[in-house]
Amino acid sequence: MSERIGPPLRGDERETLRAFLDFHRATLALKCEGLNDEQLRRQASPPSTLSLLGLVRHMTEVERTWFRRVMGKENVGLVYSEETDYQAAYDASGATWGEAVAAWEAEVEASRRIEREAESLDVTAYNARWEEEVSLRLVMHHMIHEYARHNGHADLLREAVDGVTGV
Question: Which is one Pfam family of this protein (predicted)?
């Protein structure tokens, strides 16, 4: 994942959305930095079974779904479930950082490509789950929201694993 760079203070809408999304992607990567697989799999906030590695796997599915499946109209399944079970990604019990980060980075790159190739933020695609057309603008905002929400979880998980805060 790339280094974390703040969004432009005077960028246009698309540049600003792109930068905020990349900022949050980099934040999740930083939350996982320096931990081994066992620490990344640790379910550190009982009774929740959530782990840092589970969050990375979940965000892999979110990237794939919103960008490749919805906006890109690609006929691809989920990464971690053949039954389209979005919760399956959270089970990181047998996962490793190497496989999880490779899958996540591949989906992020596909997402970036689809966003770059879109004519504008007004481009729409059908979201079968919502049974509605959605714009790239909505998808970008939704992704920022999704990462920000889960980065809050990652803050708590990381602190519980090794006491690190403030990343």
Answer: MST
The domain segmentation of the chain, as residue ranges, is 13-162
Cα 134 to the center of its chain, rounded Å? 19
The pair phi, psi for residue 68, each rounded to 5°, is: -80, -50
The pair of structure tokens assigned to 161 is: 């694993």
- Rounded to whole angstroms, the Cα distance separating 115 from 76 reads 18
Q: Where do the DSSP E strands lie in 98-157?
A: 124-127, 132-135
pLDDT tens by residue, 118-136: 999 999 999 998 999 999 9
**Interval 80-125: pLDDT, tens:** 998 888 899 999 999 999 999 999 999 999 999 999 999 999 999 9
Q: Residue 41, exposed/middle/buried by CB under 10 A (0-12, 13-18, 19+)?
A: buried
Share of the chain above pLDDT 90, in %: 86
Amino acid at 81: S
Q: Name 32's Cβ contacts closer than 8 Å, sequence gap at least 6.
A: 40, 52, 53, 56, 97, 101, 154, 158
